[in-house]
Hints:
The structure holds 2 protein chains of 2 kinds.
Chain A: E1 22-27, H1 34-45, H2 49-62, E2 64-70, H3 72-84, E3 89-93
Antiparallel strand pairs in A: 1-2, 1-3
Chain B: E1 2-6, E2 9-13, H1 16-35, H2 44-48, H3 62-67, H4 77-115, E3 118-121, H5 123-143, H6 150-154, H7 164-185
Antiparallel strand pairs in B: 1-2, 2-3
Helix pairs in contact in B: 1-4, 4-5, 5-7
Amino acid sequence: VTAPAELDRPEVDEVVDQDRPWVAIVWNDPVNLMSYVTHVLMQLFGYSRSEAHRLMLAVHHEGRAVVSNGTREQMEHDVARLHAKGLWATLQQD
Amino acid sequence: VRFLRRRGELELQGDREEAAALASVVGQLLRLLTDDDATPSDDPLAALVGLSVTDARRPDDPALARLFPDAYDTSTPEGESAAGDFRRFTEADLRAGKRANADAVLESLAALAEDGRRVALDDAAAEAWLGCLNDVRLVLGTRLEVTEDTYDEMASLRRDDPRSALLLLYAQLGYLQEALLECLDGG
């Protein structure tokens, strides 16, 4: 049998601020079809068609929309999934 | 080529010439995704765990930069560094996924060329088509510097405009992707 090695855990230098979650943002671009953006938002995040449509229109008219929020790790995962679908996405702390 | 739902099944239809024309375009995407391939990592630790650590730099080619965008606002040094880390650990998978989509599309186009009329697409193949058509449009759109007014401007494009053939292809692929979405979402 074995036991895990004792590790000096590094100090957590990112203070987890519950009031300031990270967000994933989708940015407007002239190529992606409106119907495709709606399809991807439904598929990746389980949004209803009307909610996904509303977010797509926010991207289209306002240039960007927050589509997801959570920890930094979760948002990196979401942004990677959005990039896999060809959407232009970034993450940042809200 | 076109998409059709027949008795609930999604079908790709078209003749050999159409299949060959589209396969040529998708083949160019595949080459773009392959030529620029990251060199395997020399990092023995990364090799040990099978992590493919890629170049952390944003691609110089605007079309590749659009397929592999920065995940962080890079206007600050912190953002630049975070974007580099993100790229280092995600880009190889992202690239592999796009290549797999293109391979799946080429496979169904080869089947279509063989049959000469129609080939069934399952859910996975349909998603691969959707992603691949989008990637081709992103590359074409970036190269042609399209804007949201491009479709309106096409009507007044001169016949001898060097962009007209590619813009027509770009528009046709847009219709094709839209038709596939209608088949999938019933929208």
